[in-house]
């Protein structure tokens, strides 16, 4: 028996005539057009994931306006109340690298890369290059003033930033980033410096580090420095070892210095590797809960909340939730010290009253302890607060509520 697909009729070779050939030709053209349309739609969707706007900044410090590409995260237009991390890179061609890596590393729940606005120069600008060169040569600090007075304030004025700013640079731009950190440390919160050209650099960075690094304001900051043994990097290896040893030794409290060697990898791969590793470290405190045996968690729920308050107010400038750390601590105590476990989760609910996850954790603990009435009451709150979550959580929490309610009913009937 032959199954016939009506959309693609099978035509016997013996009865094929000119009209049939014509029909097949027309069908092929139509299918081709549909395929091209499909590809076009997909391409449009992909390009829409990383919309680019232009921002022109004029300054008395620069002889001509500088045009920047501002790459927005996919959610920027749909989430009008959301504020974003900023990443700035001086190299115009870094834009597609950062945009692609960011889109991939953030699309799965902003894990590990929190959604970020990426700003890069649109193209080479001689006027900007002039103040850049003056800073490198030590004849002017206009570059520092330009960043502080014009570049960063204009970005903040036009786009919704949450206050956390990352500087990214490769080779010479990485060395300049180190200079910015030392000479004006309040510009950025984190620095990704790949293959910095440190050997015989006019800024004399080793001397600057010796004199200035330990005296930086005592506030959280992150500095990633990386190098390889490629032929292009070899002349800077000795200086890199000296500088990174100095920085590791002299780092102020709350300054994290991360040093990596990507030996055996190609030179042009360095910024990709550096960015991947650095982003994971920069946002690790956002994603990674404290383990119950950590120094902070051992001090209890209040210490955990104080730690996350520090992360929110001092390190990142936006709220970092303590909920997962509180849940982990409570879980570790539920079997042997259930009273403490419940108290921790009650504190979590009090601190995060709108969180479906907080109410669900408390409900699950009550259920495990066979306090079915309290389990149902808390799970009802979890369901109510899950209305803005994705359907998976709404469905899961409703199923748990049904389970808890049925158990309560059965228990009452006994």
Explain this structure.
- It comes from Thalassotalea euphylliae.
- This is Esterase.
- Keywords: Membrane, Transmembrane, Transmembrane helix.
- The chain has 15 helices and eight strands.
- The N terminus is likely disordered.
- 52% of the residues lie in helices and 13% in strands.
- Helix 5 packs parallel to helix 6 and helix 12 runs antiparallel to helix 13.
- It is of the alpha/beta class and 414 residues long.
- An eight-stranded mixed sheet has the order 1-2-4-3-5-6-7-8, with helices on both faces.
- It has three domains: 29 residues; 238 residues, 3-Layer(aba) Sandwich (Rossmann fold), CATH 3.40.50.1820; 117 residues, Tetratricopeptide repeat domain (Serine Threonine Protein Phosphatase 5, Tetratricopeptide repeat, Alpha Horseshoe).
- It is elongated.
- The longest helix is centred in the N-terminal third of the chain and has 32 residues.
């Amino acid at each position: 028996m032959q199954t016939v697909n009506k959309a693609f009729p099978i035509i016997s070779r013996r009865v094929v005539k000119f009209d049939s050939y014509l029909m097949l030709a027309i069908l092929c053209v139509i299918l081709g057009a549909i395929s091209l349309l499909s590809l076009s739609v997909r391409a449009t969707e992909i390009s829409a994931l990383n919309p680019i706007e232009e921002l022109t900044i004029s300054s008395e410090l620069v002889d001509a306006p500088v045009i920047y590409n501002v790459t927005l995260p996919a959610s920027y237009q749909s989430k009008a109340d959301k504020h974003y991390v900023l990443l700035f890179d001086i190299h115009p061609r870094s834009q597609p690298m950062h945009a692609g890596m960011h889109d991939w590393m953030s699309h799965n729940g902003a894990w590990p890369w929190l959604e970020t606005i990426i700003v890069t120069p649109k193209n080479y600008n001689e006027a900007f290059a002039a103040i850049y060169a003056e800073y490198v040569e030590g004849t002017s600090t206009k570059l520092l003033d330009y960043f502080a007075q014009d570049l960063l304030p204009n970005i903040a004025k036009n786009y919704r930033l949450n206050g956390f700013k990352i500087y990214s640079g490769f080779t010479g731009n990485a060395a300049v980033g180190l200079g910015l950190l030392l000479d004006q440390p309040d510009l950025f919160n984190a620095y990704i410096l790949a293959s910095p050209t440190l050997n015989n650099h006019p800024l004399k960075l080793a001397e600057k580090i010796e004199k200035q690094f330990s005296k930086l304001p005592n506030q959280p900051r992150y500095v990633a420095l990386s190098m390889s043994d490629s032929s292009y990097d070899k002349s800077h290896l000795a200086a890199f070892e000296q500088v990174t040893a100095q920085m590791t030794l002299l780092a102020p409290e709350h300054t994290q210095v991360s040093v990596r060697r990507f030996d055996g990898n190609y030179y042009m791969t360095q910024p990709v590797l550096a960015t991947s590793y650095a982003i994971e470290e920069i946002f690790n405190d956002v994603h990674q809960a404290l383990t119950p045996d950590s120094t902070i968690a051992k001090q209890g729920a209040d210490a955990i909340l104080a730690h996350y308050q520090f992360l929110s107010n001092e390190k990142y400038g936006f709220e970092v939730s303590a909920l997962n750390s509180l849940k982990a601590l409570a879980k570790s105590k539920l079997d042997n010290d259930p009273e403490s476990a419940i108290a921790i989760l009650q504190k979590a609910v009090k601190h995060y009253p709108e969180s479906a996850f907080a109410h669900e954790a408390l409900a699950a603990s009550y259920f495990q302890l066979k306090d079915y009435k309290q389990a149902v009451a808390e799970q009802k709150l979890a369901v109510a607060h899950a209305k803005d979550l994705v359907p998976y959580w709404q469905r899961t929490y409703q199923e748990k509520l049904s389970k808890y309610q049925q158990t309560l009913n059965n228990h009452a009937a006994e």
